[in-house]
Amino acid sequence: MATRVRSYSKINLGLAIGPVRADRFHGLTTLYQTLDLHDLVTVSARRAAKTRLVLTTNHARVPVDGRNTAWKMVERCLERLGVTAEVEMSIEKNLPVQGGMGAGSANAAAALIGLERELGVALPGAARLELAAGVGSDVPLFLLGGAVLGLNRGEQVVPLPDLPRIACLVAVPNVGVSTPQAFRDWDGRQGPGGLTDESKADRLMELSLAYASLYAEPGTSGIVRSLNPEKKQGNSEEIQSGVPNGLAENTLLSLVRTGVENDFEQVVFPAYPSLRETKRLLMGTDSEAPALYAALSGSGSALFGLFRSDADARVAQQRIQSAATQAGVRTFLTETLPRAAYWQRMFAG
Ligand SMILES: C[C@@](CO)(OP(=O)(O)O)[C@H](O)COP(=O)(O)OP(=O)(O)OC[C@H]1O[C@@H](n2ccc(N)nc2=O)[C@H](O)[C@@H]1O
Ligand SMILES: Nc1ncnc2c1ncn2[C@@H]1O[C@H](COP(=O)(O)OP(=O)(O)O)[C@@H](O)[C@H]1O
C-alpha cells in the first residue's frame, strides 16, 4: 500500500542576508514557521534488484526527473541505505511553484518520510538532516516543523519552542521569483543602502540573538506577559471562532519589536512593485482589521499577514480580492502549524 504524506509549507517570519561565503552561498539568519497549507506526496516502494524511480505530478512546472527535489532525495537516501528499490511517487501540487513557501523543499522531506515508511527503515536523525541539506537549504527545516531557527545558508536548523498558533493569510501574486536571481540582485545593490560584509555579519548575529531572546523566561524581559501554562501552546479553536488570541498577539508583537524583517523585500519589491502594494493591503490600517505583521516570505513571491483572529484575516482577504491592482493574486486563509500538530497530521492515511 502507498504512503500519503502531507507536505506542509513554511513562511520566513524574518530573514537577514549576510556575506557571500566561500561556497558562493549567502550566510542567512532566518526564522522559519511551518503553515497548515500542504501538497500531497504519495510514495510506494518495494525492494528490487535494480533501482527504478517513476514520478508523476498534476503541475506542469514541476519536473518529473532528476531535477525534482523529491527524486533527488529518494535517490540519495537509497544510496545511503545501500538499498535498491522500485519507487513510484506522485506529487499533488496545491502550493505555488517558486512561491517562497518552500513547497519543493517540503516535497523532498515528505518523499524521505514516505520512503522510510514504505521500506520499514529509518536513517539516523543526523544523517537525515545531512541528506536534506544536500538537496536544498530549505529542506532540513521540514524534518523539524514548527518554529525553526535557520543559520549558515539556512540549512543548519535549530528547533525553537513553538510560537502560539496564529491566523494567517497568504497572498500569492501571479509571478514566480527565482531565488538565485533574488540573491544576485541583492549582491548587485550599490550605493548608501548597501551594507559592508562586516556589518552584514553583525546583523546575522544580532538577529540570532533577537530571535533567541523571544524565549526568555516570561516576565523577565517585560515583553511576554506572564501566562497561564495551560494556554502556552495557543488554541486553534480560539482562532477559528474569531476570538482574538492574546498570547499569539503578544508573542508576535515581541517579535516585531525585535526589528524582524525580510531583507529580500529590498530587492524584490523594486523588481515587482505590485508586491509592495499586496503587503500594504495585508497590513491594512488601524480601523480595518490590520495585520499584526506582514512580510514577503523567503525570496517571494508569496506574502503573508498574521492576524489577531480568523475574522480579521477574512477582512484582509476581502481587501485584496476587491483591489483593482491585485488581479491574479490568489489568497489562502490558514494558520501557523506548531511542531506537534505538524507531525500528528503528517500522514494522510
Ligand atoms: C532563501 C530561501 C529562504 O527560505 O528562499 P526561498 O526559496 O524559500 O524563497 C531559501 O533558503 C532557499 O532555499 P532553497 O530553495 O532550498 O535553496 P537552494 O536550492 O539551496 O539554493 C538555490 C540557490 O539560491 C542561492 N542561495 C541559496 C541559499 C543561500 N543561503 N544562499 C544562496 O546564495 C544559490 O544561488 C543557490 O544555488
Ligand atoms: N518537487 C518540486 N516542486 C516544485 N518545484 C520543484 C520541485 N522540484 C524541483 N522544482 C523546481 O524548483 C523551483 C522552485 O521550487 P519551489 O520550492 O516551488 O520554490 P520556493 O523555494 O520559492 O518555494 C521550480 O522552478 C521547479 O522547477
Note down, in words, how this protein is organized.
With 349 residues, this protein is α+β, with helices and mostly antiparallel strands. It folds into two domains: 160 residues, Ribosomal Protein S5, domain 2 (2-Layer Sandwich); 174 residues, Alpha-Beta Plaits, CATH 3.30.70. It contains eleven helices and ten strands. Strands 1, 2, 3, 4, 5 and 6 form a six-stranded mixed sheet that branches. Strands 8-9-7-10 form a four-stranded antiparallel sheet, with helices on both faces. Strand 1 and strand 2 form a beta hairpin. Helix 1 packs parallel to helix 2. The radius of gyration is 20 Å and the shape is globular. The structure holds 4-diphosphocytidyl-2-C-methyl-D-erythritol 2-phosphate (SUD) and adenosine-5'-diphosphate (ADP). The site of adenosine-5'-diphosphate has 21 residues, from helix 1 and helix 2.
Q: Can you name the CATH architecture of the largest domain? A: 2-Layer Sandwich
Please write the CATH class name of the largest domain: Alpha Beta
Tally the beta strands: 10
What is the approximate shape? globular
What is the succession of H and E elements?
EEEHEHHEEEHHHHHHEEHEH
Q: Strand-residue fraction? A: 15-25%
Present as ligands are: 4-diphosphocytidyl-2-C-methyl-D-erythritol 2-phosphate, adenosine-5'-diphosphate
What level of helicity do the residues show?
25-40%
Determine the structural class based on helices, strands and strand pairing.
Answer: alpha+beta
Write down the CATH topology of the largest domain.
Alpha-Beta Plaits
Kindly report the average pLDDT value.
89
Enzyme class: transferase
InterPro entries: GHMP_kinase_C_dom, GHMP_kinase_C_sf, GHMP_kinase_N_dom, IspE, Ribosomal_Su5_D2-typ_SF, Ribsml_uS5_D2-typ_fold_subgr
Protein name: 4-diphosphocytidyl-2-C-methyl-D-erythritol kinase
Pathway: Isoprenoid biosynthesis; isopentenyl diphosphate biosynthesis via DXP pathway; isopentenyl diphosphate from 1-deoxy-D-xylulose 5-phosphate: step 3/6
